[in-house]
Amino acid sequence: MSMFNIFNVSGSAVSAQSQRLNVVASNLANADTVAGPDGQSYKARHVVFTTAAMGSVGAAGVTVSNVTEDNSPGRRVHDPRHPQADAEGYVTYSNVNAVEEMVNMISASRSYQNNIEVMTTTKTLLMKTLQMGQGS
After folding, report:
1. Considering the entire predicted model, what is its pTM?
2. Alpha-carbon distance 7 to 24, whole Å?
3. So where are the chain's domains?
4. Which of 103, 122, 102 is nearest to 14 (CA)?
5. CB-based burial label for 54 (10 Å; 0-12, 13-18, 19+)
């Protein structure tokens, strides 16, 4: 594998993790939202990754193939005084689990950082190789 393919592979991972962070941010922003007038509450979203071919040498990267909705029921809280309460006095909140989303955010952030570090290290190695080729 060429050293330049490393940039393609790490770049694809950085892009995918960036999308994952955006989805997590959206989930966290809607964690405490209640059902709208249509009775539907916000549904948590999750990113699905797939392997993607990078170049003709057989290197593989990653891409986001889909963003899926979590169809588990929302959290129901009994609060008859709430303006969005149903006939039984329950308010339906989103199905976002803030703790899981925070863990997901930390994981995506670390993956992003690690891939940036891979690209930085590869750049440094390429620069040193060029310096060696110039002679002392």
Report:
1. 0.83
2. 25
3. 3-34+44-70+96-134
4. 122
5. buried
